[in-house]
Amino acid sequence: MMERVTHTKKTRIKASSSRVSIYLHKTFSSFMNAHQQRLQLYHLKNDFDITDLDSTEWLKAPEVHIEHYWSGEKAPKGRHFSAKLLWSKTAVYVRFEANIGEPLVASTDPNLDSKTHGLWDRDVCEIFIAPDSEVPQKYFEFEIAPNGEWIDIALDATSGKREADWDYNSGMQSAARVDKDRIISAMKIEWIAFGKTPKAGDVWLGNLFRCVGKDPTRGYLAWQPTMAETPNFHVPEQFGEFEFC
User: Fold this and answer.
1) E strands of 22-149, at which residues?
2) To pair with 120 at 20 to 30 A between CA atoms, which of 2, 58, 187, 230?
3) Which residues contact 178 (CB under 8 A, 6 or more apart)?
């Protein structure tokens, strides 16, 4: 749930907007030339415990490596992360593996029993999922922190203004572990949380993100670049595709 707003003088914005637009267009074009816009989810015959972060079931999943910021600019290797997705008849599984290249920004007294508001201001990995490809403006946000804290939010921007349902309860299950040079985290979200169950061949929409570090050098990585002029993940028009195989 990240949207950073900066305040500058109108004259400065007017003078620099064309240069920013040209830069973002060039960066986006070079980024997309060799970028994967569809991620396949392989089907599981049997469910497994999400706390088993090293389950051999994850070996079945294609892995997508995310190495760029929301703008398409390349991020330092210490901020790179990867994701794997699987699905079963009951749930979707998401696993993140994130490099550690700087001190983590996380609570020393984590709350694992309920959602943590403001989690997006710390180190987190996130997934946005839009079940209806015809209406990407209605989507769900799920975040997991290195210490296991989490949050789930239902969002609706069909009116042109983004509305958040903070009382949304997906029943998501999650787990996380910090190793020497990486963070492993995972989520399991049952289909009831989305109001529908996919079938093989279906394509949903969404995106994958990581927030890492502290200002003024805080980083916002994205699988599909949102190309906003300031860091903003909430751009459904730029969602990639999740294909259920």
Assistant:
1) 38-43, 63-66, 81-87, 91-99, 124-130, 138-144
2) 58
3) 100, 104, 146, 147
pTM as predicted: 0.86
DSSP designation for 69: B
pLDDT by residue for the chain (245 residues), tens digit each? Answer: 544 332 323 333 333 444 444 444 444 444 443 456 999 999 999 999 999 999 999 999 999 999 999 999 999 999 999 999 999 999 999 999 999 999 999 999 999 999 999 999 999 999 999 999 999 999 999 999 999 999 999 999 999 999 999 999 999 999 999 999 999 999 999 999 999 999 999 999 999 999 999 999 999 999 999 999 999 999 999 999 999 99
Token pair for residue 127?
A: 């997934």
In the chain the domains, ranked by start, together with CATH numbers, are: 10-244 (2.60.40.1190)
Distance, CA of 40 to CA of 61 (rounded, Å): 8
Among 82, 95, 88, 81, which residue's Cα sits nearest to residue 42? 88
Structure tokens at 128: 């946005």
Instruction: Please state, in angstroms and rounded to a whole number, the distance separating the CA atoms of residues 88 and 43.
Output: 6
